[in-house]
Design a protein that fits this description.
This protein is an alpha/beta fold. It has 4 domains: about 5-215, Spore Coat Polysaccharide Biosynthesis Protein SpsA, Chain A, CATH 3.90.550; about 230-315, no CATH class; about 330-520, Rossmann fold (3-Layer(aba) Sandwich); about 545-710, Glycogen Phosphorylase B (Rossmann fold, 3-Layer(aba) Sandwich), CATH 3.40.50. Its EC number is 2.4.-.-.
Length: about 725
C-alpha cells in the first residue's frame, strides 16, 4: 500500500501548527504515513509545539523564509512513496490520504490533489483550475482537465499547494520546487514541469482539505495583498521560464505591464477606501520596479523546461510511522443538537459536547450539526457543522403530522447537512435529542440508523408551564402535534438512549406506552475528568453552599429560598452562592424569585450571606464548584442531573432530591444526602447536618469523586455508547435490505 510523507512547512504559526498536527492524528488511512515539519526562521513558540509531539514526528529547519526551499528540504527528508503537502493553517478531512492514494494506482500519475474549502469550511476555495505558460490561471473550470496533461501543453491543470501530493520519484526526477519562486506559482511551476516530463496531474473530486488562509507576509487578515513583489516578480519569471517558446519576449513584457497596472489600480482603490494606508501606493511602486528588474533577469537566466534538474542527496533519517488515533473499529457518528457550547450551556448542549469530544478522543469520526452560520471547522477533534436554519417546505409526511414550521425548518436543515456529510463518507449512525424532536426529519427520511436520546420531554416541561398547557389554541397548533411526534420518535427510532432508568420509567408512565426492551439502553451521562480540586483556602470557619441552575420551580429554587432563612439563623458561618439565570418569572407572576426575595426584605437582614450571581462564564463556574463546601440542587425533577457530576468531579458533598434520575447519581449517605422534593424543612436539615461536620463533608466528597471516576466520566459514556450504536445499526440493517 502507498506510503506517505506529509510535509508541513511553517513559519511563526505555532497555534495553527498545533491544530493541524492534532488534525493529522485523526486521519483514517489503512497504510502508513509519516509527518515532517520544516520550520522557517521562527521567532514564536513553534519549537515548543514541536517538542510536544516529540518522537511522533520528524523535523527540519529552513534558514530563510522561502517556501520552495522549505518544501525541498521536506522532500529530501521524505521516505514515503508519495510526498503530500498541507499548509500549517489547514486541516485535512479524515479520508484525505485514502482518496489521494487511490490516484497513485496509475503509475503515470506524478501528482494528485483534492478539494480545498475556504475558511468557512462550507464553500470552495479551490476545486479545479488550469494555468497557461504565461501564468494566466482559470479557477472556473467545471471539472478536472486530464486532456490537458501532455508535454508542452500551453494550458495545463495544476494543484493548490495546501492540498497537493506528488510521487517522490517524480519529484526527484524533475528537481523538486524551483527555489527562485519563494512564494506564489510554486506548485503551478512544479505541475508544469511534471507534465512536461510525461507525468499526469490528477485533480480529485474529494480528498478534502479545509484552509483558513491565515495572514502571512503577503496577505493580511482580510485577505488583502500587502506585498506585491513576489506576485509580480514570480508571474514575470514564470512567464519567461515557460512562455518564451510560445510567445515573443515583447508579448510577455506587455502582459507584465498590464498586470502591474491592474494591481496598481487595486491599490489605489483600496487606499481611497481606507483599507490600505496611503504609503501603500509608494511601497507598491517601489516593489513593482524591483519585481520587473529581478523577474526579467532571473527569467531570462532560468533553465528552459526539459533541461537537466539539480541532483539531490537525501537528508538523513528513517521513515517514522505516525500513530493516528483511529479506533480499530472506528465509526462515523453524526450528532444533531441545535444547542451546543459556547452559545448554549444547558444540559443538552453540555451532554452533546462531552459525548462528541469523548468519541473523537477514542478515535471515532464525529460530526456535530448545530445552529450557526454555515461553517464547518475542526474543534477539539470534532467536525462542527454550524448551520443557518433555512425555511424548508414541509413534506407530505410532515404536513400529515402537523409538524410546526419552525421545528421542521431546523430538523430538515439537519437532514440536508447529514446528506451532505454522507455524500463524502458512509455515516454509521445519527443521534438526536428528544427535545424539540430534532430527529424528526431523519426518522421520516429513514436513511441512516437513528438514535434518540431521552432528556426532559415536552410533557414534563408543560408541568411547569400551566398557562400554555391550558391554552387550547397553543396546544392544538404546537403542543399536541409535538407530543405525538415525540412518541413516534421514541417508538420508531432504531435505538433509544435513556440517560437514566428514571427517565425511561417516567416517560412510559406519562405517555402511556412501553419502550421495546430490545431498542432501549440506559447509558448514564458523563463529563471529562479533571483532577479533584484542592481544599479551599481557610475562610475563618465560613462554609459556602453552592446552587447552580436556572432559577425556576423545576429546579427547586423556591424550596431552597424557603430553607435559607432557617439555615442562616441556625448557623452564622454559612454563605449561599446562587448561580444561574435569575430573570425567569415565577409561575403566574411577572417577577422573578430574586425580585420576590428582595421584596421580602431578606437582603437587609442577611446582607452578603446570600449572593445571586446570575449567569457566569465557564471559568467562574468551575471555580465556584472548586471553592464550595456543599453543593445543593433541590430539583423537583431531573432526567439525570449533570450539576451533581460537576460537583462530584471536584470532590464535593451534594444534596439532591429523591426524584427523577437523581438517586441514580447521588447514593444517599454515600456521596450525598437525598431529601423529598419540595420539602424545605428536610432540605434545611440536610444543609445544617453537613455544615456541622467537616469530616463528614470530606468523606462524602471523597466518595463522590470515586463514584464519578468509576461511573460517570465522558470516556466511559463514549465507550458505553458503542453497544447502543451497534444496536441501532443492527436494527436498521433489515430495513435497509
Amino acid at each position: 500500500m502507498t506510503s506517505f510523507s506529509i510535509v508541513i512547512n511553517t513559519l511563526n504559526r505555532a497555534s495553527l501548527l498545533r491544530r493541524v498536527l492534532a488534525g493529522l492524528a485523526h486521519l483514517r488511512y489503512a497504510g502508513q504515513f509519516e509527518v515532517i515539519v520544516v520550520q522557517g526562521p521562527c521567532t514564536d513558540d513553534t519549537a515548543q509545539v514541536l517538542a510536544e509531539w516529540g518522537s511522533r514526528i520528524r523535523t527540519g529547519t529552513c534558514p530563510v523564509a522561502n517556501l520552495s526551499m522549505s518544501r525541498n528540504i521536506g522532500i529530501r527528508m521524505a521516505r514515503g512513496d508519495v510526498v503530500a503537502f498541507i499548509d500549517d493553517d489547514a486541516i485535512p478531512e479524515p479520508e484525505w490520504l485514502t482518496h489521494l492514494a487511490a490516484a497513485y494506482a496509475d503509475p503515470q500519475v506524478g501528482g494528485a490533489g483534492g478539494i480545498v474549502c475556504d475558511r468557512s469550511g462550507y464553500t470552495f476555495q479551490y476545486r479545479y483550475a488550469t494555468a497557461t505558460r504565461l501564468a494566466e490561471t482559470d479557477w472556473r473550470a467545471p471539472g478536472a482537465s486530464p486532456s490537458l496533461c501532455f508535454p508542452a501543453s500551453f494550458r495545463f491543470p495544476y494543484l493548490q499547494g495546501t492540498n497537493a501530493s506528488f510521487r517522490r520519484t517524480a519529484l526527484l526526477e524533475v528537481g523538486g520546487f524551483d527555489e527562485e519562486i519563494e512564494y506564489y506559482l510554486d506548485e503551478t511551476d512544479l505541475c508544469c514541469r511534471l507534465i512536461d516530463a510525461g507525468f499526469l496531474i490528477r485533480q480529485l473530486p474529494d480528498a478534502y482539505v479545509h484552509h483558513e488562509a491565515a495572514p502571512n507576509a503577503v496577505r493580511d487578515a482580510a485577505q488583502l495583498t500587502v506585498a506585491s513583489y513576489p506576485i509580480l516578480k514570480n508571474s514575470l519569471y514564470f512567464s519567461l521560464k515557460h512562455g518564451l517558446p510560445y510567445v515573443p519576449l515583447a508579448h510577455i513584457e506587455r502582459l507584465h505591464a498590464e498586470r502591474v497596472a491592474a494591481r496598481r489600480a487595486d491599490v489605489v482603490h483600496l487606499v481611497a477606501a481606507g483599507r490600505l494606508p496611503p504609503a501603500a501606493l509608494d511601497d507598491f511602486d517601489a516593489a513593482a520596479v524591483r519585481a520587473g528588474e529581478t523577474g526579467l533577469r532571473r527569467g531570462l537566466e532560468s533553465p528552459r523546461p526539459g533541461s537537466a534538474p539539480t541532483t539531490w542527496s537525501p537528508l538523513p533519517g528513517d521513515f517514522l510511522p505516525f500513530a493516528a488515533r483511529a479506533h480499530p473499529d472506528a465509526r462515523t457518528v453524526v450528532l444533531v443538537s441545535r444547542d451546543y457550547p459556547p452559545g448554549h450551556r444547558g444540559g443538552i448542549a453540555v451532554f452533546h459536547r462531552d459525548l462528541a469530544e469523548a468519541l473523537a478522543q477514542a478515535g471515532h469520526q464525529v460530526h456535530v450539526i448545530t445552529e450557526g452560520a454555515n461553517e464547518v471547522s475542526l474543534e477539539n477533534a470534532v467536525w462542527m457543522h454550524r448551520m443557518a436554519v433555512q425555511r424548508r417546505t414541509r413534506t407530505p409526511a410532515a404536513v400529515a403530522r402537523a409538524i410546526p414550521q419552525p421545528v421542521w425548518d431546523w430538523c430538515a436543515t439537519a437532514l440536508a447537512e447529514t446528506r451532505r456529510i454522507a455524500g463524502l463518507r458512509p455515516v454509521d449512525v445519527v443521534e438526536a435529542p428528544i427535545w424539540d424532536t430534532e430527529g424528526a426529519a431523519l426518522l421520516l427520511d429513514g436513511g441512516w440508523p437513528l438514535v434518540t436520546s431521552l432528556q426532559t420531554t415536552l410533557h414534563f416541561w408543560l408541568q411547569e408551564h400551566p398557562d400554555l398547557r391550558n391554552d387550547a389554541r397553543w396546544m392544538a397548533d404546537f403542543g399536541t402535534p409535538m407530543l405525538a411526534l415525540e412518541q413516534e420518535l421514541m417508538r420508531g427510532s432504531h435505538a433509544v438512549r435513556a440517560i437514566s432508568e428514571a427517565i425511561r420509567r417516567d416517560i412510559e408512565q406519562a405517555y402511556g406506552f412501553r419502550f421495546d426492551p430490545a431498542a432501549v439502553m440506559t447509558v448514564p451521562l458523563g463529563m471529562p475528568d479533571a483532577p479533584a480540586a484542592p481544599p479551599p483556602a481557610p475562610r475563618g470557619g465560613r462554609i459556602d453552599v453552592l446552587f447552580v441552575g436556572r432559577l425556576e420551580a423545576r429546579k427547586g429554587i423556591d424550596v431552597l429560598l424557603a430553607a435559607i432563612p432557617r439555615v442562616l439563623a441556625a448557623h452564622p458561618s454559612i454563605r449561599f452562592r446562587i448561580l444561574g439565570d435569575n430573570t425567569i418569572p415565577r409561575p403566574g407572576e411577572r417577577t422573578s424569585y430574586v425580585d420576590a426575595w428582595r421584596a421580602q426584605g431578606h437582603p437587609r437582614r442577611w446582607g452578603d450571606r446570600v449572593v445571586f450571581e446570575g449567569r457566569v462564564d465557564d471559568a467562574t463556574l468551575r471555580a465556584a464548584y472548586r471553592d464550595c463546601d456543599v453543593f445543593v440542587a433541590p430539583s423537583r425533577f431531573e432526567s439525570f442531573g449533570l450539576v451533581f457530576l460537576e460537583a462530584m468531579r471536584e470532590g464535593k458533598p451534594v444534596i439532591g432530591c429523591r426524584a427523577g434520575g437523581m438517586p441514580e447519581v447521588v447514593a444517599d449517605g454515600l456521596n450525598g444526602i437525598l431529601v423529598p422534593p419540595g420539602d424545605s424543612a428536610a432540605l434545611a436539615d440536610a444543609i445544617l447536618e453537613l455544615a456541622a461536620s467537616a469530616p463528614r463533608r470530606a468523606a462524602l466528597g471523597a466518595a463522590g469523586r470515586a463514584r464519578f471516576v468509576q461511573h460517570f466520566t465522558a470516556a466511559r459514556m463514549a465507550q458505553s455508547s458503542m453497544p447502543l450504536y451497534d444496536l441501532a445499526r443492527g436494527r436498521f440493517a433489515p430495513q435497509a435490505a
